Amino acid sequence: MSERLYFNDMYGRKFNGRIESKDGNKIFLDKTLFYPSSGGQPNDTGIIKSKDRLYNVIDVYKEGEDIVHVLDNADGLEINDLIHGEINWDRRYIHMRYHTAVHIIDGVVDNDYNGQGLLTGGQIYNDRARVDFSFDAIDKELIGKIIESANKIVERGLNVFQREITGDEALKIPGLARTEPGRELIRKLDQVRIIEIDNFDFQADGGTHVANTREVGKIVMQKIENKGKGHKRLTFTID
Ligand SMILES: [Zn+2]
Question: 147 and 101, same structural domain?
């Protein structure tokens, strides 16, 4: 199992590691900064250097507890080779900004619209993100108010930090896992990683985030879609 360096070093761009196994153009490392697509956040891309050769990392995903690095080719690489990895930082950083924006919108809905609706899911892209809500009815005015409140949190420059607690502790925190699938997941975990926005919101989470809400930039509404009863979708960008 790869050590997930991106959890404790969210601003890390470079690392050294070792190849633990190889399967065609896929390699498995003892540790990695490459984020695998999960939880609505897309994978990192970047490069790996080894024995004076350069390889492109074109996809990264989870396979059980393993992290699979898909290379453009893996010719010449062998088990136990030492590697130097560098992630494509521009791509990662935009994902961190969007991911944190999703937390802020979730926090606003949870704090101000408790009982009316919840944020039930989301997907981040390189140029936009979308979030799904369980509101029965939603309109531009309501979404406009949510985004206005979210942008106030951005402007306040709140610190974003992480900590680890036990699954039992996590289940005792009201509102931490707001959906039954979320609670189910937490019951299976010994340690739960919490992402907290100072005095505003906390969530159990496996993604990467910026350290201060000001880094997110201005959240701009792009599209609202009605996907049926209790399912509304907002697409937004950040400036
Ligand atoms: Zn997150």
Answer: yes
CB-based burial label for 51 (10 Å; 0-12, 13-18, 19+): exposed
Distance in Å, CA 17 to ligand 1 centroid: 26
What percent of the chain is modeled with pLDDT above 90?
A: 74
Give the C-alpha separation, 161 to 213, whole Å: 11
Q: pTM of the predicted model, to two decimals?
A: 0.94
> How many angstroms separate the alpha carbon of residue 52 from the centre of ligand 1?
36
Q: Please state the rounded mean pLDDT for residues 173-198.
A: 81
Same domain, 189 and 98: yes
Closest CA to 96 of 220, 10, 202: 10
C-alpha 25 – ligand 1 centre gap (Å): 30
Query: 79 CA distance to ligand 1 centroid (A)?
Result: 33
Q: Does the pLDDT value for residue 174 go beyond 90?
A: no
Neighbours of ion ligand 1 (CB under 5 A): 99, 205, 207
**Residue 71 shares a structural domain with residue 180:** no
209 Cα to the center of ligand 1, angstroms = 6
List the domain range (segments joined by +) for residue 187: 93-238
Question: How many whole angstroms from 77 Cα to the centroid of ligand 1?
Answer: 34
